[in-house]
Amino acid sequence: MSQTLPSAGQGTVAPAGTPKKAALASFLGSAVEYYDFFIFGSAAALIFPTVFFPDAGANAAVMSFATFGFAYVARPVGAVILGHFGDRVGRRKVLMFTLLLMGASTFLIGCLPDFNTVGWWAPALLVLARLCQGLSAAGEQAGASSMTLEHAPDNRRSFFTSWTLTGTQGGQILAALVFIPVLALPDEIKYGIGWRVPFWLSAVVVLVAFFIRRTLHEPPAFEEAQKTAQISKLPVADLLKGHWRDVLRVIACAFIAAVSTVFGTLAISYAKTVAGVDGTTTLWLVVGANLVALGTQPLFGMLADKIGRKPVFIYGAVASAVLTPVFLLSLESGSVPLMFLAAIGFFSCGYAASNAVWPSFYAEMFSTKVRFSGLAIGTQLGFLMAGFAPAIVAAMGGIRPGGWVQISIFTAVICGISAISALTARETFNVPTKQLGLK
Questions:
Q1: Is the entire prediction scored with pTM above 0.90?
Q2: Where in this chain does the record put each Major facilitator superfamily (MFS) profile domain (predicted)?
């Protein structure tokens, strides 16, 4: 007989090692997603204006950033579709699909012809592939967070689900390390075949994640719902009937994700254009901050299991707002050590708190029968702000001298909305899994 891990509260049990395996599968899935998203964001800032928009002139950067945002348009649609099937047929099956779709879309981006070859068909095909990435991402984190939370013991849900978002750090680190050598290549190679290699390499990460994820079974909570005929026939309808306030709350809280795109995409362009910091240095800043976040995020998850989700999440939002101008001004200082300290403080010790806690914080607002749908739809609508943050701030003049003011104000507003919304939520860290989302 297999050993079991007891959970707090209701005594729900899971096979020994299953929470760790679920966390690892979620970590790798998020690593794939954010490897793909980060290399796209880096390319949108540093490569695509030249490759796909050479005739756009001063608007090339805005148009390139807009392609980054298009994935977030597909996400709400994908959230409804994938959320429905995730709550109907199971978390694992949907997660296998999202993993393969993300990998295929990213690989194909590396195969696209450039503007000089097919004209405006090139950015059109880029947008199409980006939409497929967005469709995949709509179900990946929601499914991974739901599955990990439902496998975890009650008193460690935040810690185990924090690995879903810690996977984003792993993916960003890997993407940056792959992209740094590309930037060192001569222009004719860099803008030719060089930028394509990171997109092709995503296939390796996908294969590793696929073979681990395929051995994972459905969470006990979902299997019990299947056995007792408590699976919703129309999860979205049930969600909007019984949890519409929580969906709105998650949408507003999810604005906090825009901090990540400010740090990982917008700041790269700002540093290069305004501060004259070379792309390699800014990518190393991303690597350094994400390496530290690999350690801080599980700690924030553990803290949230001790004192609650709300205080840790709200701290992360407030710290992000306060430290954004510090980080941006450090980019103008010319001091690389100061840049690294500011990046680590801003991202690894500030934003990382909210980033680590939101998978459990949001998922615990919903019951098992609508959790996948609620988490997917709420986050993906909120993530629209993250997707278009670079284009919005660039259009506001944020990529110009003195633009740190616009970027800082934008970040403070979205962080304020997230923090206020979190204040209205119910604290759930001491609620047993079986009772989550029940009124």
A1: no
A2: 22-430
